[in-house]
Amino acid sequence: MLDADHAWNRLLGVRNAADAARAGLVHDEDWRWSEPATAEATTLAQRYTPLCVEDTPCAFAQLGQSADGFIAPHTRHAVYVTGEEDRLHLHRLRALADAVVVGARTAVVDDPRLTVRACAGTDPVRVVIDRSGRVPRDRTMFTDGRAPTLVVADRRTPPPTDGVELLRLPGTGALDPSALLAALAERGLARVLIEGGGVTVSRFLESGALHRLFVTTTPDRLGGGVPGVSTTALGAPTRQFPLGRDLCSEYVRPAYASAGTASKSSCPTSTRSAPAAHSSSLRAR
Ligand SMILES: NC(=O)c1ccc[n+]([C@@H]2O[C@H](COP(=O)([O-])OP(=O)(O)OC[C@H]3O[C@@H](n4cnc5c(N)ncnc54)[C@H](OP(=O)(O)O)[C@@H]3O)[C@@H](O)[C@H]2O)c1
């Protein structure tokens, strides 16, 4: 009987349909193992194989949001909005990614490590979009030596230091998410997780550069704080799955692109309740 640990280790090696077949995965109505497997191993196959076999380059994002649509409280302190199972899901997404991208504000406020700790897997290359040079060089991702770290740079970005490599892209100010994905793909980083915060994920979403979006919604309300993404214009999620008491909604690009997302049309109801503070426009938050 294939158990979850072995199933996950096999999934880590899957990059396309041929890999999937070699790993013992088959697709009929859904992805499943060709041999007897535990319920958890079956869940892993169904949940992550579509991402593993996605054409590259590809970008996928994950945000944990409160029932009223916020990803962090007003204090902006690093807190987990969602539960332990969503954290495991996030670490699995990191393990399946070649690179993980965060915005400058998340790097400043959360000081995240962006490493894979809750499951087996290799740490992705860490990328922070810091064109105004506001992220201090004492952040953990610059100093822990766990994985290479790139800073998407501008004129204002301080020069490289030990542990910090600059990635210079044409232009100043607002960055075209597709140009970043192309530059990462040139470096062999073809699967990219956009991990937050709300502004960064929204910019990828608006530009149409995101292939998949996972929004995990907790039943709790924050009553205010840092807005996440609005999902109204994305239409119905491609699928949903429970993560403990939270609910993860997965949106896959063809479905939401046809709903007009890339053209900044109106947006989001979370799958639980519409955030009162969110307007109907899919704008950067
Ligand atoms: N619940 C979750 O899943 C989750 C996940 C991650 C973070 N968070 C929380 O989210 C909060 C931060 O989120 P946030 O929305 O305020 O900010 P953010 O997305 O972390 O950072 C936004 C900043 O990143 C830079 N940036 C991002 N995309 C850019 C682009 N395309 N072009 C140019 N610059 C770009 C800009 O920096 P400049 O303005 O300096 O140019 C922008 O202001 C924190 O409180 C953190 O705790 C929650």
Keywords:
2 domains; 285 residues; Dihydrofolate Reductase, subunit A; nine-stranded mixed sheet; single chain; two-stranded antiparallel sheet; disordered C terminus; binds NADP nicotinamide-adenine-dinucleotide phosphate; 9 helices; alpha/beta
Please explain how this structure is put together:
By secondary structure, the protein is an alpha/beta fold. It folds into two domains: 1-53, no CATH class; 54-263, Dihydrofolate Reductase, subunit A, CATH 3.40.430.10. Helices cover 28% and strands 22% of the residues. It has nine helices and 13 strands. The strands form three sheets. Strands 8-7-6-5-9-3-10-13-12 form a nine-stranded mixed sheet, sandwiched between helices. Strands 1-2 form a two-stranded antiparallel ribbon. It has a two-stranded antiparallel sheet with strand order 4-11. The longest helix has 14 residues, at 39-52. It is globular, with a radius of gyration of 18 Å. The model is unreliable at 258-285 (pLDDT under 50).
Gyration radius (Cα, Å) is 18 Å
Number of E-type strands: 13
Terminus-to-terminus distance = 46 Å
Total tally of structural domains:
2
Uncertain regions spanning at least 5 consecutive residues: 258-285
Bound molecules: NADP nicotinamide-adenine-dinucleotide phosphate
- Structural class, by secondary structure, is alpha/beta
Tell me the layout of helices and strands.
Blueprint: H1 4-12, H2 17-22, E1 25-27, E2 31-33, H3 39-52, E3 58-65, E4 70-72, H4 84-96, E5 99-103, H5 104-110, E6 125-129, H6 140-143, E7 149-153, E8 165-168, H7 177-186, E9 191-196, H8 198-207, E10 212-217, E11 226-227, E12 239-243, E13 246-252, H9 253-258
Parallel strand pairs: 3-9, 3-10, 5-6, 5-9, 6-7, 7-8
Antiparallel strand pairs: 1-2, 4-11, 10-13, 12-13
Helix pairs in contact: 1-3
This protein binds NADP nicotinamide-adenine-dinucleotide phosphate.
